[in-house]
From TrEMBL:
It is a multi-pass membrane protein. InterPro entries: MetI-like, MetI-like_sf. SUPFAM superfamilies: MetI-like (SSF161098). It comes from the Bacteria. This is ABC transporter permease. CDD domains: TM_PBP2 (cd06261). It is found in: Cell membrane. Its main location: membrane. Residues 199-405 form the ABC transmembrane type-1 domain.
């Protein structure tokens, strides 16, 4: 009588077949993982990690907590009414003395200056005054030095709130909001609220560029998909030529074309269309025109790839059933190109949101997009918190747009099914 083990299928070396298959599957998975690991590590180091640091820096700001450790501890006991007591002033004096010795008083003043304009110079003056004091009372000395800052509860509210390592100040400022003296979120003063308008401007310019690239790119993609292969390949080379040229070079070329004494103005005057030269550069029109030219291939290629998969027999069948040229195109051909339109427009819109070089060179002051201010706070102001907050909000806008697109595409697929 055979036992259960005798009925198990085995390999030639006696290993149960089930175990041997698991080993082979595990070995294949490990080889695949080894092949993918370098690319995964590259993506993590060059894409995921920088984005994670960007999001983290938007809410993490340890400058005050690091430079004012004694004040951070002492101000916790303050109830927020009136001015703090002598121990808090003494702790701040000790921190400012250390900051004066370590040459970090400027960092403290710079951080406070983000929330109260003109504070940096007063912090530096107070640090120099405190460095000369040997003993208290410090509260009296602070109030005598500058009652306009140390006699205001607002600055102490800021110190109590912002000496914590995590802050919502930058994200709120990027949305034109701020904390008031009671810790409530309020709108920024109208003369200082600029970022919401800039985000709207960024979305509007990206929308215009996407719309113009679609209007220009759809007929071109249709022509490329309809022509014989030899002819369409030749024209496709012309479409791809911008990919072989640097973005900076293409933008500089538009500067040459659009300037007052440029090629376009010369041509329009020579043809008699204009009597006087017009301003084509450093305005919204020039910015959108240059960006449309640069982004046109990104819209054409996805639409073209979808059109190439559509059989010409569909249109012939619609025409044979009595449909007119436009009706057949609109009801039969166009709906099949919608996925390509969505992909091309989404790609163009997302890329347009992050444009920096073209608006900076071709646009005017009222045409700068949010990426300009990210660069400004990164390279000039050295305010990494604000730059990270603006970048994080731009990333959030992009993700929301992508999720909306995915949602709409999913709904369309259900309807078509």
């Amino acid at each position: 009588m055979k036992t259960f083990d005798d009925q198990v299928m085995r390999t030639e070396d006696g290993v149960p077949l089930k175990i041997a298959l698991k080993r082979a599957e595990r070995s294949r998975n490990l080889r695949a993982l080894a092949l993918v690991a370098p690319l995964f590590l590259f993506i993590v180091l060059t894409f995921a990690a920088p984005i994670g640091m960007l999001l983290f820096r938007a809410i993490y700001d340890p400058d005050l907590a690091r430079n004012l450790p004694a004040t951070t501890e002492a101000i916790r006991s303050w109830n927020g009414e009136g001015l703090p007591d002598e121990p808090v002033f003494a702790a701040l004096a000790a921190d400012l003395k250390a900051a004066q010795e370590n040459k970090t008083a400027g960092q403290i003043g710079k951080r406070l200056n983000y929330e109260m304009s003109g504070t940096r110079s007063k912090i530096l003056a107070t640090a120099r005054m405190v460095a000369k004091l040997e003993s208290g009372p410090y509260k009296e000395a602070f109030l005598k030095q500058d009652p306009r800052i140390w006699g205001q509860p607002d600055v102490w509210h800021i110190l109590k709130r912002e000496t914590k390592p995590f802050t919502g100040f930058y994200l709120l400022a990027a949305l034109d909001h701020q904390f008031d003296s009671n810790g409530n979120i309020v709108r920024t003063a109208p003369d200082q609220a600029i970022f919401v308008d800039i985000f709207i401007r960024t979305l509007w310019i990206a929308f215009l560029v996407t719309a113009f690239t679609l209007l220009l790119g759809y007929p071109i993609a249709y022509l490329l998909a309809s022509l014989p292969t030899s002819t369409s390949n030749l024209l496709m080379i012309l479409v791809l030529v911008p990919f072989w040229t640097s973005l900076l070079v293409r933008t500089t070329a538009w500067v040459v074309l659009l300037q007052t004494n440029g090629v376009i103005n010369d041509a329009l005057i020579w043809l008699g269309i204009l009597q006087e030269r017009v301003q084509l550069i450093f305005n919204r029109g020039g910015t959108v025109l240059a960006m449309t030219h640069i982004q046109l291939p990104f819209t054409i290629l996805p639409i073209y790839s979808v059109m190439k998969t559509i059989s010409p027999s569909y249109m012939r069948a619609a025409r044979s059933l009595g449909g007119g040229p436009f009706y057949s195109f609109w009801r039969i051909y166009f709906p099949q190109t919608v996925p390509g339109i969505g992909a091309g427009c989404l790609l163009t819109f997302i890329l347009s949101l992050g444009y920096y070089i073209t608006p900076a060179l071709v646009g005017g002051p009222a045409d700068q997009m949010i990426s300009y201010f990210v660069a400004l706070y990164t390279n000039t102001e050295l305010n990494w918190g604000m730059a990270s907050a603006l970048g994080a909000l731009l990333l959030a806008m992009t993700l929301i747009l992508y999720l909306v697109y995915n949602r709409l595409v999913g709904i369309d697929k259900v309807k078509l099914g």
